[in-house]
Specification:
The chain is mostly helical and about 140 residues long. It contains 7 helices and no strands. The longest helix has 27 residues, at about 115-140.
């Protein structure tokens, strides 16, 4: 397939995807590596308990979701087809992370409806969109 020039919408979506996924990496870092003892001290006890009882494997899944999303966004901006499987990895990790949170924790009760259900649902929808958008961009010949 011949490489064709992406339209302006492609660039807007790719830049927004990059910003979104940078925010995701910062959310991961803020919730894991950069969460200081002082920050933990001001958290409500139920939130602290939820954070401290998160399984290590789920933290790794969170890292994969955010880092793969960021890498996929960079690859999309570079117009590379490899963005598709990278976004697929991110999507899979997002699904595992959020379904675990919904089914096996009381996160919704701890954080409330918006943080417990709405935000995770938005994250899932965006991950699905980016996966399929990158596939569509490849079909249009925008990615090599």
């Amino acid at each position: 397939m011949t490489l064709t020039k992406p339209n302006t919408g492609f660039w807007i979506i790719a830049v927004i995807a990059l910003i979104w996924n940078i925010m995701g990496v910062f959310a991961f870092l803020g919730q894991t590596l950069l969460l200081s003892d002082d920050a933990k001290a001001i958290l409500p006890e139920d939130q602290l308990t939820l954070l401290e009882t998160t399984p290590t494997w789920l933290t790794i899944v969170f890292a994969i979701a955010t880092i793969a999303g960021l890498l996929g966004s960079i690859l999309l901006l570079a117009k590379r087809k490899v963005a598709i499987p990278v976004f697929g990895i991110s999507l899979l990790a997002v699904l595992v992370q959020n379904f675990y949170g919904w089914l096996f924790t009381d996160a919704a009760a701890v954080y409330g409806t918006v943080q417990g259900y709405v935000i995770p649902l938005v994250v899932i929808i965006i991950a699905i969109f980016l996966y399929y958008y990158s596939k569509g961009a490849a079909q249009k010949g925008w990615l090599r």
